[in-house]
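Backbone-to-sequence.
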């Protein structure tokens, strides 16, 4: 994935996706214009559209829809996903517009195994644990009652522990998510130490917060970063 920083908006691109992360210093009143100015620098916007991460901003559904329309009308690109740290602001529309996920999958003992990539705009929901043999791309979402295991790249949003299971965890072979969440505790990309980005990382509940640990088989006393 290719990263470009410019002002307070960072662009992350690869051949399939473009994610724009909007910094907190961009005024709310100029979000649309600032985002469009950066979009103009993207030579070939993906056909699947772009994903926009608004960080800590809390927008109403009406505000999110207005922003999405402004960007699409003024920039001529499709906004596939629009989300903040507190909500996926475009999930309903994105789920309706994108084709259903095509995957080689099977269930066993409350675990869903999938051999596929979860692309931008696709949402996977399961009451047990989800094991993805593939990538969770930026703009893609996995929501699981228990744990989430991504054996490839975790670039999107992973929500685990929706059943309130305290033993739920999130693991990725390459950990670089937009956001991870277990029960009511969450972390965004900007909160993750740079040394852990792209590594084998497990995220679990620990002392009222989330703990990130390098390598699945390390002891809890080594390679850990805790967030209360």
């Amino acid at each position: 994935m290719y990263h470009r920083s410019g002002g307070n908006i960072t662009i992350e691109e690869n051949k399939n996706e473009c994610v724009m992360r909007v910094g907190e210093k961009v005024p709310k009143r100029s979000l649309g214009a600032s985002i469009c100015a950066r979009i103009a620098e993207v030579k070939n916007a993906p056909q699947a559209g772009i994903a926009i991460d608004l960080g800590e901003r809390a927008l109403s559904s009406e505000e999110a829809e207005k922003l999405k329309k402004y960007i699409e009308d003024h920039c001529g690109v499709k906004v596939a996903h629009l989300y903040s740290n507190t909500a996926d602001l475009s999930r309903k529309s994105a789920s309706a517009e994108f084709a259903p996920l095509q995957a080689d999958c099977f269930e066993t003992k409350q675990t869903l195994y999938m051999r596929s990539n979860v692309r931008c705009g696709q949402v996977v929901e399961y009451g047990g644990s989800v094991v993805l043999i593939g990538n969770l791309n930026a703009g893609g979402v996995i929501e699981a009652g228990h744990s989430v295991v991504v054996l490839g790249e975790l670039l999107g949003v992973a929500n685990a522990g929706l059943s309130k299971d305290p033993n739920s965890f999130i693991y990725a072979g390459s950990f670089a998510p937009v956001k991870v969440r277990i029960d009511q505790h969450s972390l965004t990309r900007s909160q993750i130490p740079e040394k852990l980005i792209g590594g084998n990382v497990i995220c679990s509940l620990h002392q009222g917060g989330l703990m990130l640990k390098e390598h699945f088989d390390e002891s809890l006393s080594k390679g850990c970063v805790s967030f209360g």
